[in-house]
Amino acid sequence: MTVLRTRLDTAAPAFTAARDAMLAKLAEIDAEHAKALAGGGPHYVDRHRGRGKLLARERVELLLDPDSPFLELSPLAAWGSDYPVGASVVTGVGVVAGTECVVIANDPTVRGGASNPWTGRKTFRAMEIAERNRLPLINLVESGGADLPSQSEIFIPGGRLFRDLTRFSAAGIPTIAVVFGNSTAGGAYVPGMSDHVVMVRERSKVFLGGPPLVKMATGEESDDESLGGAEMHARTSGLADHLAADEHDALRTARRIVARLNRTRPDPPADPDPPRCDPEDLVGVVPADLKEPFDPREVIARIADGSEFDEFKPSYGPSLVTGWARLHGYPVGVLANAQGVLFSAESQKAAQFIQLANRADTPLIFLHNTTGYMVGREYEQGGIIKHGAMMINAVSNSTVPHLSVLVGASYGAGHYGMCGRAYDPRFLFAWPSAKSAVMGPQQLAGVLSIVARQSAAAKGRDYSEEQDAAMREMVENRIEAESLPLFLSGRVYDDGVIDPRDTRTVLGMCLSAVHNAPVRGADGFGVFRM
After folding, report:
1. Mean pLDDT over residues 62-79, rounded?
2. Which of 1, 183, 204, 320 could form a disulfide with 199 if both were Cys (CB 3.0 to 4.6 A apart)?
3. Sequence-separated (6 or more) residues with CB below 8 Å from residue 376
4. Are 332 and 364 in contact (CB under 8 A)?
5. SS3 content of the chain, % helix, strand, coil (to 5)
6. What confidence tier does 25 reach under pLDDT thresholds 50, 70, 90?
7. 304, 529, 522, 300: which is closest to 395 by C-alpha?
8. Model confidence over 450-492: pLDDT tens digits?
9. Please, what's the b/e burial string for 320-342 (b: 16 or more CB within 10 A of its CB; e: otherwise)?
10. Which of 304, 255, 274 is nearest to 94 (CA)?
């Protein structure tokens, strides 16, 4: 392969300014991550520990193989909402007994682990990743069920959780529930619908209705242990497959269950060469002002094995860089926006490249920095609609795994053509520099201004320039705020905001995960309008 040579001047003022801006954004993201790590705060953490219990992340750490990485998903879920950052649950991909698994762990220090609407979105996303990549699913359960004040937003979509658990089992995707404390009401169906269930003696409580509800509904007097304790479920109801002495024993048992699943997968590639260009420089690649262009090859050179990249059609459609590389030994095709705008040539080039990747059963990585497809009379007459549709057709019907990283701008239909969230990439992460919306704030405010002016003129009314300026400022500020990674990640529109320097590691873990399922290209595509 061709080795990419960097042209990045790390001593230039522009690089220093970009680096400083990125580090400031990373500090802001880290501060929000710290809120998720803090759980319910010192009081509830201390109370939980005082009961002799492990925290959610401690449970995850003991479950995973020693010194193995954990790719946490959606850590900023619920940011900007009325609920705590993190959505009272920890989700991610990690290695358990040599097997990659998706782990979902309730955080009982946040409202007793009760599920709010964002808990559901975050959990469903983790389950989607497990299903599409055929990864065993492990639920570490301690939850009081639905957060009752928000039940109207939870009850209807929440039923999908139980449905999907049964579908996982039918599809041969193992499901394991380890119950550490309460698993009540609807939460009782998590162990009830899992393939394997571990409960902790004198700790686990699983019942559809607790003693107060039973008293109200039937008049029957009962206690927690006889109604839904671990001993009862192990000896009488049969719901518990394994009765653990304590939390550590429960996690050891879960690891043994995974070890006995007899899972097989292709061996990972051996000892790939690291990039020749320093990944540390990635913090200074993207300018603070996304209107300033940057060369995405500088990113590729710092994530690809040996900085090697065989570019496809380098002279045609130069605003989109396409080509072949390896990442942690896995072959990949890369599509990366260069100058932001997608023209007809770039769209046709992308469609052909995606077809070739499918023919070669090769996963695709999309590096976003696009303002969308080009508009204007010349481009409309030149067929930008059908050419953009050709690219979107190829992305939509491609069946090889797609991994997307929002590096810079990701606006309009360009977000779709580059496999944005609506197009089901296996994983999608964002850099702190990313922005995504239907269009840029200034463009959107300008469109609204033009429409308002035309409406006033059609009605014969005067148009206030002062009100127009105020409206534009308000709209620009709102759209800018709604375009930022914290806002988007808070709504689970991505799988996390990552440090640019971690991009190679994150993508490597994703590639390892997707190879648990067959990697096969599409046999055919829809009709391409020529």
Report:
1. 97
2. 204
3. none
4. yes
5. 45, 20, 35
6. very high
7. 522
8. 999 899 899 888 888 888 889 888 988 888 899 999 999 999 9
9. bbbbbbbbbebbbbbbbbbbbbb
10. 255
Pairing between β-strand 402-411 and β-strand 427-430 as defined by DSSP bridges: parallel
- In this prediction, residue 148 has a pLDDT band, given cuts at 50, 70 and 90, of low
pLDDT of residue 192: 92
What are the Cα distances from residue 422, in Å, to 17, 263, 425, 497, 514? 33, 31, 8, 18, 19
C-alpha–C-alpha distance, residues 155 and 148, integer Å: 10
| DSSP bridge partners of 157 | none
State the average pLDDT over residues 99-123: 93
Joined tokens for residue 124? 């469903």
Kindly state the average pLDDT of the residues 250-256. Answer: 98
Residue 457, token pair as written in the block = 């003129």
CB 124 within 8 A of CB 77: no
> In the numeric block, which tokens belong to residue 189?
């169906």
Give the phi and the psi of residue 21 in degrees, each rounded to 5.
-65, -40
* Spatial distance between the Cα atoms of 308 and 305, rounded to a whole number of angstroms: 6
DSSP type of residue 2: P
Contact 419, 366 (CB under 8 A): yes
* φ, ψ for residue 423, nearest 5 deg: -105, 20
Question: In this predicted structure, what is the pLDDT of residue 237?
Answer: 95
The rounded distance, in Å, linking the Cα atoms of 429 and 431 is 7
Find, among 423, 405, 431, 416, the residue nearest to 486 by Cα.
431
Both tokens of 274, joined, read 């690291």
Query: Are the C-beta atoms of 395 and 351 separated by less than 8 Å?
Result: no
Report residue 406 as tokens. Answer: 């929002």
100: β partners: 95
The predicted structure's pLDDT at residue 18: 97
**Both tokens of residue 168?**
């996982």
Give 67's pLDDT tier (boundaries 50, 70, 90): very high
Calculated CA dihedral for residues 4, 10, 11, 17, nearest 10 degrees: 140
Q: What pLDDT is attached to residue 323?
A: 98
What local confidence, expressed as pLDDT, does residue 146 receive? Answer: 67
Cα separation, 404 vs 504, whole angstroms: 12
Q: Which of 188, 530, 172 is nearest to 383 (CA)?
A: 530
